[in-house]
Amino acid sequence: MSVPVPYDRTAPGRRGPKAVLWCRDLAMGARFAVTGGRKGLLRTALTALGVGLGVAVLLLAAAIPNAMNAAYGRDRARSTVPAAEGSGPTDRTLLITTQNSGYRDQPVHGRAVRAEGPHAPVPPGLSRVPAPGETAVSPALADLLASPEGALLKERFPDLRISERISDAGLAHPDELLFYEGTEALSGPGEDVERITGFGERNDGFRSSPLVVLAILVGCVALLAPVAVFLATAVRFGGERRDLRLAALRLVGADRATTRRIAAGEALAGALLGLLTGTALFLAVRLPLSTVTLGSLGFFPSDVVPDAGLAAFVALAVPGCAVGVTLFAMRRVAVEPLGVIRTAPQRCRRLWWRPLLPVGGVALLLPQAIGGFHSNDAANIQVMLGTALLLLGVAALLPWLLGAAVARLGRSGRGGPSWQLAVRRLGLSGTTAARSVSGITVAVAGAIAVQLLLAGIDAKLPAEPVPHSLWTTVLARDGVLPAARAHEMYARLAAADGVRTAHGLITAQVGPAGTPPGTDPRDPDAEPYPLTVADCAALRELARLGSCSDGDVFLVRGGADAVPHPGERLTLTPPAGHGAHHRPATWTVPATARHVAARDSAPPWLTGPGLLATPKALDATRLDHFHVGAFLRLDPDSPDAIEHVRNAAARIDFRIDLVNFEGGGARDDGILALTRHGLTAGAHAVLLLIGCGLLLTTLEQLHDRARLLSALDAFGTPRATLARSILWQTAVPVALGLTLALACGLSLGCLLLHMANGPLQPDWPAILTLTGTAAVVILGVTALSLPLLWRLMRPEGLRTE
Amino acid sequence: MTPEGSLLSAEALHKAYGATPALDGAEFSVHPGEVVAVMGPSGSGKSTLLHCLAGIIRPDSGTVRYGPHDLTRLSDAQRSALRRSDFGFVFQFGQLVPELTALENVALPLRLNGAKRKEAERQAREWLERLEVDAVHGQRPGELSGGQGQRIAVARALVTRPRVIFADEPTGALDSLNGERVLTLLTDAARDTSAAVVLVTHESRVAAYSDREIVVRDGKVKDMLAGLI
């Protein structure tokens, strides 16, 4: 039988260097975090998950610079360096033209190339220039062409001979459908053909307008600030239970400083696990990023690598924040032995320092608002700092505002027991609620401000009409097809599967020729008249002709644009056009030409004023420069009709363009729209993230009140009363937070708009959507709390033995 | 069969938690104004009996009669309404809402019954005076001593003028002096209002305040006056 070793009162015990004490206590706290039984583990897991979500967002943000640089690098590598104007072919030049099309909602980017010498520049991602008849394809395109889904696309490449696969260096993103086709059809530079001496030497760096930079800066701050708030909340999950455990430690001799260090150790363990979780989440999330494109920029997963400095900052700041926040939070908690936790007397929240943050933010933003925003490093930092201060000021003001509002509501004596319970609960532990909700407030305020800014910038941009037509237009530009092959083109297009109606036409530009004798009849300042030559059936789709027979000519008036008058002599060579060495052919508008009105339903590009002539009235072969076109109506029940038309056009000539506005073309707002959509998605994601935090806080509070809930149930408190109490408890801070967010967001937005010199046009639907999401968060938190509430309102909680 | 004149009675109560029986054919009755102490060792089924009598839980079988009602046949909402209007409760601890003041805690059952706040608080104030804790009416539970907290709980149990008060170890967390004072106030107030008291305890000094003692052992009830029932 072993004899207990007597307690040595002279042993050094907990004496030792401070650093050793810190390490020992932090380690003990970390051990508690992972050895606290099922509940302890659950709490640590929640902290790790919460911190992990925040860390993942931070790592993604830290990866943006590298990702943008990589994406821009690849985009720049594909840009062409044109040969000097007028220079001829050399052994170092390449002829190149684009062949962009689409396949089932995916863009297909193509370039036709012809090396003019052995040292012609090689496109990025290729080992050599494809020889005539050869095609280099991207891996995604190669896979598509090899799959049954790409069978229809393969018809567009009847003699496909793949020379090589384009490597990542030549692609915007992994899923890009891209090809380089070697051809002999390119004879020299022309309307769409370029002679180049190299790739990727364009030295204009990635630049967006200062206004877009402003929007991105504010968006980043608006999205990251609530993440910081959420992180601060996440490291405090389970704080109340932890305090009870610390009280037990006090009973066995731990002093207050020790309990603080142990608490910090627990938080540190959660934060470190959160770092690991966040890294795993980040690695999982960056894969889908390869599907995101920003205009011509796209990403490979390997692009999304956090900046080393920023990643190191996150790795140090998150655990540091966990320890700091825990120690700060414990200032007001007196952990006493015998399990007694006495919250230090509630001090009236001091107001004086809280407005300093938003005021400081406004002070930083105001000079930029007054003088106008000019993007440079100093101005960018000033705007980011000002925005961050203003938004964090909201987070600082909210606890005071909530405290004041709850005190007033509590004094008013109105409302039923559920209201009273909620308001009093908020009064006692409103800081927790305010802390969680401040994340929502910052996110919504930032989102509203940026929405306002983007709406203002959008309103400043010239409005582009959004074409919409049931017609699909096919166009062979000048030089691609001779007029003699026009009929062949119409016939092939009309025969394509899914084409219901096909009309052919030839378009050109003609100029006035009525000039004094002895002078150049082509006045270079004169506006040319658009001319369309087609049969009556086609012309009827363009204008309200009335009667029409071959040989007729029509004049379509429109707006202030001039149209020739009957009897006017016109030159068939456009002003300042090509072919100056020819004697210009002329043509006189017949005296019988009638004025008609254009049809609104005419295909885009073929509407507006000008001349409409039937073939007998004007022989199109007399035109020097012309486009051969067709407009088609496709079978709406045949979704692949457009692909059949593309294939038919490609078989005629790969340079033929096709434009389909059947669904109404979406206006491409580029990076502005992407910023807006990204911000809206980010704000909603942050709202949901904060909702998770609120839910965890509410569930934790319910667990801590299990006995009380059982007692309340025992004396007959209706469940609905307690459910409503939870609803109010969530709704009051969120409603206050949203009100504050609206005020702050609109103010910040106005300041930013002043910088952008844009009109104030709040995007109310977006604002309402955000507030609606916040309402959904409130209801969701309440609904998800109810099962636990019902479970805790059982008599088991009343047992004392 | 209902014992004659009883306010609340139970017959052949059976209740098991999994394979463990808590009540095994328990019988019980209490008359208006009567204080009955329910005694027994830990785990004997005292609290389960109290919870069944109060309609907090349903027994597996048997009946609980209160006036014309069989509590075992009432819905959860009906039993909750009955507990709000006719029953009062005092537990050992953890029963006061920490956010509310002492006065608001006492007024809470009245407010749950639909009383206006001012009227509820007026009545609550009377009970606080009677239980000698009016001085702390504005304080929250965390600021009260254990004895004060239990008096507040007693006031809350009495404020609706219940016909039956259920007290589960009401002095378990108090020192003897405070415990005696609380029990005196509880039983006096109950007798004044003709309320019956079901007092669960394992302390014989607490049981001394009762008119009758019963002992629960292995889920069966023994009446110390009438012998085994």
Automatic annotation (TrEMBL), chain B:
Cellular-component GO terms for this entry: plasma membrane
ABC transporter domain residues: 8-229
Gene3D superfamilies: P-loop containing nucleotide triphosphate hydrolases
Record-linked InterPro entries: AAA+_ATPase, ABC_transporter-like_ATP-bd, ABC_transpr_LolD-like, MacB-like_ATP-bd, P-loop_NTPase
Domain of life: Bacteria
Entry-linked SMART domains: AAA
Alphabetical UniProt keywords: ATP-binding, Nucleotide-binding, Transport
GO molecular function: ATP binding; ATP hydrolysis activity; transmembrane transporter activity
Pfam families cross-referenced by the UniProt entry: ABC_tran
Record flagged with keyword Cell cycle: no
PANTHER family assigned: ABC TRANSPORTER RELATED (PTHR24220:SF685), IMPORT ATP-BINDING PROTEIN (PTHR24220)
Descriptive protein name: Macrolide ABC transporter ATP-binding protein
Natural source organism: Streptomyces chattanoogensis
